[in-house]
Amino acid sequence: MLGFERKNRQVHLICAALGLATLLVVVFLVLSGVRDSGVPSANTVGAEPVWAFDFTEGLQHRYSLEFDGGGRTLNGKVEATSSVGLKADLLITNHGEIDGRHSIEYRLENVEHAEIWSNQKELLGGSLKAMAEFGRGSIWLSVADTGKVIERYISQEMNPILGKIFELIVGELEVVVDGTRSWEEAQGGILGFGPVRYSRQETTPKAIAFERKRTRYDSLYGLPDYKGQTKADIEGQSAIDLSPLGFVQSFRGREHVMVGDLFDMDWTLTTEYLDSQRNVTVHAGKLEEGERLRKQGDYRSAQELVQRQSLLARAGGLTPAKFRKGILSSGLLGTMPNHNRWLWQSVAVLRLFPELCLEFPGYLDEKSFND
User: Fold this and answer.
1) CA separation (Å) from 296 to 58, 140, 155, 300, 302?
2) What 3-state class would DSSP assign to 362?
3) How far apart are CA 160 and CA 175, in angstroms?
């Protein structure tokens, strides 16, 4: 159990390391449009330009993305180090609107470089494999008109570790539209959760510049017990340039966070807008609050996927078939070889396959229970 928890902490640390890679993603989403007039009034004297997402169905934006991050955490006596590097194209596609929410897909393509290290070991068996794995699957967001992310869904075909990393990156990319010169929003990022402050900077006919800075962390993913009791030292900010036409032109961000000797992480990210396409093929039926994709089994929420991977690791090699065989061979009052371990694994199996619980009444009729 301790080994599994240690591995789980390493996954969160690695996830923390790969930060803003997709920050461009939601950043773009939030900014891809203009309210009312369709074009912000950037040239109006004394007035703030008004902008919002352009949620046109079938609209796709492509960006170049480069990310480097890493650091160390200390939980009790367990120290973990990690580093992540990524260079790829980021595609953001709008698949339409369902009940006032917009279905947005994030996907990586043309992965030129990818590496993930944990405690000085390559996590995925080499850069080439990591590059291939990062190019599989995608993440879907259910987004409100303001850009607020309501739900996230992660493709099951993604490697669990990479999927979690990508999901946290998408969280860092969330940008919420306010319309004033300065506002604060509570949101998650690559390292943890807490409030950020947006400040409008220079506005020109070609760009609307914003600065976003994390004011504090209420929780840190690499420190499960951290609840803000010790103030985190936070350095850095993100500069976001928005096109007057309603999309992100560039993102330049960096952050360094320290909590005494327990947490020391940093990341840098740059993204640049490349091009856009309209009328790209969208998913038939779109997201529909996640139900369509859930029914097909293609996507799960990020939390569900991480929980499932944890249970699978706990179950080890105990499958439903082996579980049934063990029950029938030993009887209700019998004991199993390595009994405590078997019980520990069985709980995970029953949580993964709750339908097995319905079979217990039938077992009472089995001869093994009446001998």
Assistant:
1) 22, 15, 11, 10, 16
2) helix
3) 25
Report the alpha-carbon distance of residue 271 to residue 276 in Å, rounded: 15
Residue 77 or 285, more confident: 77
Which token pair is 356?
């097995």
| Alpha carbons 52 and 45: distance in angstroms, whole number | 20
Quick: pLDDT tens for 221-265.
888 888 888 889 999 999 988 887 778 888 899 999 999 999 999
Tokens, residue 333: 């009052």
Instruction: Kindly provide the b/e burial profile for residues 4-43, where b requires at least 16 CB atoms within 10 angstroms of the residue's own CB.
Output: eeeeebbbbbbbbbbbbbbbbbbbbbbbbbbeeeeebebe
Reported as a single tens digit per residue, the pLDDT across 253-310 is 999 999 999 999 999 888 889 999 998 888 744 444 444 444 334 445 555 655 666 6
Q: Residue type at 38?
A: G
Q: Exposure of 221 by Cβ count < 10 A (0-12 exposed, 13-18 middle, 19+ buried)?
A: buried
Other Cβ atoms less than 10 A from the Cβ of 261: the count is 9
Q: In this structure, how many other beta carbons lie within 10 angstroms of the beta carbon of residue 174? A: 24
Are the C-beta atoms of 205 and 249 separated by less than 8 Å?
Answer: no
Task: Concatenate the DSSP letters of all residues of 159-170 into one string.
Answer: -HHHHHHHHHHH
Residue 141: count of CB within 10 angstroms of its CB: 26
The dihedral over CA atoms of 15, 213, 64, 35, expressed in degrees to the nearest 10, equals 120
